[in-house]
Amino acid sequence: MDKMISAANGEVIITNDGATILNKMEVLQPAAKMLVELSKAQDAAAGDGTTTVVVIAGALLKQCLSLFPVESTPREEASGTVDDTEMVKGLVFDKKVSHAAGGPTRVENAKIAVIQFQISPPKTDIEQSIVVSDYTQMDRILKEERNYILAKILVVKDVERDEIEFITKTLNCLPIANIEHFRDEKLGYANLVEEVPLGDGKIVKITGIKNMGRTSTVLVRGSNQLVIDEAERSLHDALCVVRCLVNKRFLIAGGGAPEIELSRQLGAWAKVLHGMEGYCVKSFAEALEVIPYTLAENAGLNPIAIVTELRNRHAQGEINAGINVRKGQITNILEENVVQPLLVSTSAITLATECVRMILKIDDIVTVRLIAKAFDDCCVWLVYLLHAFRIDYYCFVAPDILNFKFVNILYLVRENLFE
What we know:
Layout: E1 3-6, E2 12-15, H1 18-24, H2 30-45, H3 50-67, E3 86-88, E4 90-93, E5 106-112, E6 114-115, H4 135-150, H5 164-171, E7 175-176, E8 188-198, E9 201-209, E10 217-219, H6 225-247, E11 251-253, H7 257-272, H8 276-288, H9 290-298, H10 303-315, E12 321-324, E13 329-332, E14 339-341, H11 342-360, H12 371-388, H13 408-418
Helix pairs in contact: 1-2, 2-3, 2-11, 3-8, 3-11, 7-8, 7-10, 9-10
């Protein structure tokens, strides 16, 4: 399910991405802030599983709290729709073509220059005029202007400065900082540059780039900005899945299958352990069941019945049995092609465990109140008011306090008051 987030500044976001939801929340509790950082760490490590890692950490903390009555001490052992989204083998600008001089909106076999200087001369505050003494000079000026107009140059203005490096790498060209530096080796070449209408606006597409860098553009479309933003986040997660497969080339079953299987095996291991270690391993195993439980709950199923059946199926040796959200039942999830990168699961469990261990080692929260800073601010305003009412205050301040600079005597006064 998606969540609607309303910020204090009026910004509205609709998303189901855990990292985005946590980033937009105003978290004050220190332990909760650690969970926010945990989600960010998972996003950086795997790009996906940001909700999973927080859910696992919460379940682990809940299980750890149930162990405290056993008198144990935690310790550390060693405009369109989303369907219209398309991939463009080239470059796309969300800018319009300049029509100031009647230039073209489509150019084939284009030479492309990235200009980083002002073409027109700068305007000064001094009044000046150009005097043309005879008609031959006027003809020469008009002929020069006509040549530029007939050159059919397509102009895209107001490109962001921080995008220049990316654009030049994609177009395989170099930025030009002076009009004298126009040379073929600094230009890019493309089969087609065109302005394309898109909804209420227009974009510029550059395709067929010669010797193009390793760049592809995904043109995301949607009925409004909220849909586009969520589609962009989903696309980011999908690309991170590919990145995970590059880093660790293993896929495992999804649908809660790995978590319930790991929980079952840890539960069996806990039975052969003695003392507190057995309790800890058993609680860890029970905490992992929160993933299939939450998955079933979000799918509108009976979570208790689904998790119980899933546990029994795995006990019978069906290690690939998982929750099929589309069919509303438990099936062989690999046959349904529901898989996930191994790195996402391992990273989520590892980071959640480390975060919980860190929280459990904390026995108290110390809040540091900035009393001294507040007193300093009061002293400044006090001196300002004394000066405003022309009261004699030379006995305890120096003249430079009027410039809001602290002097030693103020600190002495503060120390005496606090004694």
